[in-house]
Amino acid sequence: MSATNQLLAARYQFLQVLGSGDFGKTLLMADVHSPGHPQCVVKQLNLPTRNPTTLKFILGLLKKKVEVLEAIGRHAQIPTTMAAFEANHSFYIVQEFIAGRSLEAEILPGNPWPEGAVLALMREVLTVLAFVQEHGVIHGELKPSNLMRRKRDRSLVLLDFGLVKDVSRQVISRDVPLTKQPKRINRVYVPREQREGNARFCSDHYALGMIAIQALTGLPAEELPDAEHPDIYHAIVATLQGTANLSIPTASLLARMVHPNADRRYQRAIDILNDLSLMTTPSAALKMPSEESVLTEAQPPPPNSALPRKPVGLIAGLVGLAALAVLTAVWSLRLPQKLMATQQIAAAQTAQQAGDVPGAIARYTDALQWDDRNLTALRQRSQLYLQNDQVNAAIADLTAALEINPATPRLYYDRANLRFAIGDIQGAIDDYTQALDQDPNFIKAYINRGSARADWGDDRGAVDDYTQALDRNPPTEEKAAAYLNRCLSHSNLGEQVRALEDCSAAISLRPSHGLAYQNRGLVRRRLGDLQGALQDYQIAIQIEPNSPEPYYNRGLTRQSLDDFPGALADFSKAIALFPDHIFARYDRGLLYAQLGQPEAAIADFEHAAQLCLDVGRMGCYKDAQYQIRQLSEGGE
User: Fold this and answer.
1) Residues 6+ apart with CB under 8 A from 64
2) pLDDT tens digits, residue range 583-618?
3) How far apart (Å, rounded) are the C-alpha atoms in residues 485 and 492?
4) Which pLDDT score, from 0 to 100, does residue 295 have?
């Protein structure tokens, strides 16, 4: 096509090239058939072959992706897809032009955003991601340049979904060698699993988390930790720790969003939004990162406070003129300084009991002016700082207290919990170890260190810690947590008999804990005890009737017992609770095929195939397509 003289599809007039890459171009054009000749964005994708069979396959994939773009384009913050067609041996997609400026022009090096503005950004983007995830869509190209601040209403619009590029990478790239590597500035937003071709919903969460960290820190993108960093998690935690005035709930949420292990991130945007809504309530504790196989009760409760900073040397609010006059009078009366500190601590405790946190902090600060080595004042003020979302001061107090008296295991334990809460797993393990070196009978430190080690992937070390806790005859709640966590670590290590014993012990201590029954059911299935597994799943369903997993697992167990109607009912219930449950769809398809219902089976396999394709799992996609072909050929 002549860029200046010939209309594309007899309708679109070229204006300028907006961008180009290995697979095609992005063009700004005018729609001359519409009133006012409105501008539109046209994506041109070069087709690599003229082979009719291959071309038909490629165009089929592209048209399916366009259908998805049309569906999600109904959202007010996603460009409308208006047309798609083949011409000039290229494939074209016509989309709405969004006037405005990208977030790249707003997130500037050296200009950190306030936390509130970053949270507002995250909520807005996550609301759109939650919508597209309902359609099984991964953005796949989330970065500041693809977030457009629309001029007319200041809303953020998500541009350049990677759906079509996915087809290019999967099919076209076989014939077109890639000559360029992603720029370093863009690689920052791409997690490892996405670089390996296995993008998931949580890959977008990683990208958004890195954008948020970039805005909070004011760092240039090229200075942010890259997913290929040999110790990226520590690098990210260190970056967060160096960010001024960042609250612990926000830091904890970000640490989970950008965890290098995709399975440990938030899996759905709606879950992040839910935690963000909890953060608006001062008394609400943010849920911390954990896998389903980790007992959350055994992890340290996340403090309602702010992220730790570098210890500060002086506390703000020095003695003013009035306080100086009091100080002079006290010295003139020669009252002992420790006595004055004691009086101020008593006043602080009174204010604390009355709910006056700022007043209590001020009194503890006065006490420390008289006696800067007073451990009671430091520890109490540290807790109040956490409640008041002043984490840098809280960490400074804990550090100062440890410098004064390093032989205090509780202080190390408290700091370990704080580090665990923000995702600094290795730091937490170090502090728990310090606490245990000083107090070998510190049961909670053993349990929490075990949870940290399991989170780090050291299940053998976790088993040792849970065993140490159990050997010390802990209280019931702690004993139940230690047994269940050890059950999970034993199972991960392939020690199913020991795992079964531990899960059963946990259930005997806490008979209403649904997760314990689910995990014991899994262990029993691995041992071949299908009837026992079935009983455990049934109890788990009674306790947690809205969770799809016990239904799905009970369905598998029933199928193994040749209870096909029961299995079909369970798979269907799991799908009703979670329509995008890939494995329930796939296994129900297999069961329909076994029951001689090929149409229902094909429908499930098609749904499963689309879900697999949407999350970039090509092996799963090919398996579902194979089943569809087998059923289709058998029906001819």
Assistant:
1) none
2) 999 999 999 999 999 999 999 999 998 888 776 666
3) 11
4) 29
Q: Which of 94, 71, 73 is nearest to 82 (CA)?
A: 94
**Beta strands of 333-379 (E only): which ranges?**
none
Q: Report the relative pairing of strands 156-158 and 147-150 from DSSP bridges.
A: antiparallel
Angstrom distance (rounded) from CA 176 to CA 40: 28
Rg of the chain on CA atoms, in Å: 29
List the structure tokens of 198. 């296995």
Which pLDDT value is given to residue 56? Answer: 83
Distances (CA, A) of 568 to 124, 430, 496, 543, 559: 39, 49, 28, 21, 8
Number of helices (H) and strands (E) in the chain: give both, helices first: 27, 8
Nearest alpha-carbon partner for 139 in 54, 236, 206, 88? 206
CA 145 to CA 262: how far, in whole Å?
24
Instruction: Look up residue 398 and give its amino acid.
Output: L
By the 10 Å C-beta count (0-12 exposed, 13-18 middle, 19+ buried), 395 is classed as: buried
- Tokens 């096909």 locate to 564
CA angle 564, 565, 571 (to 5 degrees): 85
Identify the weakest region by mean pLDDT among 109-118, 253-262, 343-352, 414-423: 414-423
Q: Which single residue is written with the structure tokens 């795992």?
A: 499
Q: 407 is written with which tokens? A: 């032989």
Beta strands in 458-614 (DSSP E): none
d(CA 312, CA 314): 6
pLDDT (tens digit, 9 = 90+) per residue, 27-83?
999 999 998 889 999 999 888 766 777 788 888 888 888 999 999 999 999 999 999
What CA–CA distance (Å, rounded) separates 219 from 211?
10
Residue with tokens 């992706």: 65
pLDDT at 334 over 50: no
Quote the CA–CA distance of 10 and 609 in Å, as a whole number. Answer: 37
Query: Which of 127, 154, 289, 137 has its CA nearest to residue 208?
Result: 127
Cα dihedral angle (40, 41, 42, 44), rounded to 10 degrees? 170
Q: Which residues contact 346 (CB under 8 A, 6 or more apart)?
A: none
The pLDDT, as a whole number, for residue 543 is 93
Residue 182's pLDDT is: 46
The C-alpha angle with vertex 47 and arms to 44 and 51, in degrees rounded to 5, equals 160
Q: What is the pLDDT of residue 286?
A: 31
CB 96 within 8 A of CB 40: yes
DSSP string, 536-565: HHHHHHHH-TT-HHHHHHHHHHHHHTT-HH
Q: Supply 322's token pair.
A: 């009035």
Average pLDDT of every residue of the chain: 82
Q: Which of 26, 7, 28 is nearest to 88 (CA)?
A: 7
Contact 80, 73 (CB under 8 A): yes
